[in-house]
Amino acid sequence: MTNITKKLFGRLSTGEKVNLFRLENSSGAYVEIIDFGGAIRSIVVPDRDGNFGDVALGYDSAEAYETQDKFIGALIGRHGNRIEDAKFRIGRRVYALAKNDGRNSLHGGVKGFDKKLWSAEIDGEALVLKYLSPDGEEGFPGNLAVTVRYTFDENNALGIDYSATCDQDTVCNLTNHCYFNLDGEASGPITGHSLKINATHFTVGNSECLPTGYVAKVEGTPLDFTDFHAVGERIGSKHEQIKFGNGYDHNFCPDGEGFRKMAELRAEKSGRVMEVYSDLPGVQFYSGNGLNGGKPFGKGNRPINRREGLCLETQFWPNSLKFDNFEKPILKKGERYHHLTVYKFSAK
Fold this sequence. Notes:
Elements: E1 3-11, E2 17-24, E3 30-34, E4 40-46, E5 52-54, H1 62-67, E6 75-76, E7 82-83, E8 87-90, E9 93-96, E10 105-106, E11 119-123, E12 126-133, E13 144-152, E14 157-166, E15 170-171, E16 175-176, E17 194-197, E18 201-205, E19 211-217, E20 229-230, H2 240-245, E21 249-253, E22 260-266, E23 272-278, E24 282-286, E25 311-315, E26 330-331, E27 336-347
Antiparallel strand pairs: 1-2, 2-3, 3-4, 4-5, 6-16, 7-10, 8-9, 11-12, 12-13, 13-14, 14-27, 15-26, 17-20, 17-22, 18-19, 18-21, 21-24, 22-23, 23-27, 24-25
């Protein structure tokens, strides 16, 4: 049985209240989520000795979430990841977006879903967040009604159920940008974590971390995680893809279709394990290369330094609107976008 509680977390610069919701199961494990940006603030789960620890990076104040630029913990939309040249075509019309990542659009624009105050309600054992993105917001067409259901069950599985509808043909590619550190959010770099990604292929990126349209085998590259490898084992490789990403910042194409296991992350020190399941086409592995210790500081007023957390963002492939061989995240008028991602925690 999951118990959900609500309390005031802080206020935005506008004076609006930000609330924090705790989803706690009968073992005492819990997840904390705020309604600003729908951000996952904490994930507190046991290690192999039964000691609870927080495995998600986050902040102590609403102000920090409002001013941060690393998307830590937040819901991302309308389009997660990059759109080349900050424009896309639906039918005969070309839509222009803000260029907030060089010449490209990243994570929904200047003020994406990570910077919105979502409406929140407790629905039994689920936290339901809703946001209506108006026609033209950040350049995207149509009034997009988004619902995200967060659940946390007795098996320490965090479920993120995304759904959306729109009154025009539009783009919809939702994800969550939680940074994980299975040894604990203040325990140092994640380079010692072991990772397995059930993907024999990845989308080849250029120097802007933009997929080029080419899908390549991971075999023989530092992106081969078909068996467990330490994150830091090949992160300093001279391989072109690693140099382009300044580490790992790549979209993998998990084998199979439908709801399936995409990845598994292990921390030897704590014994914690995280399994990632989703029905989305891709998963972006980002090794926290851009974390730089700058302000705002994280929990306990401690700097969040480089590679102290990693992301496994389930998504449609980046830059997919440009290429016919990529499945496109186009949501047709009247149709329903619906995808599920689960992060399941255990210890061994």
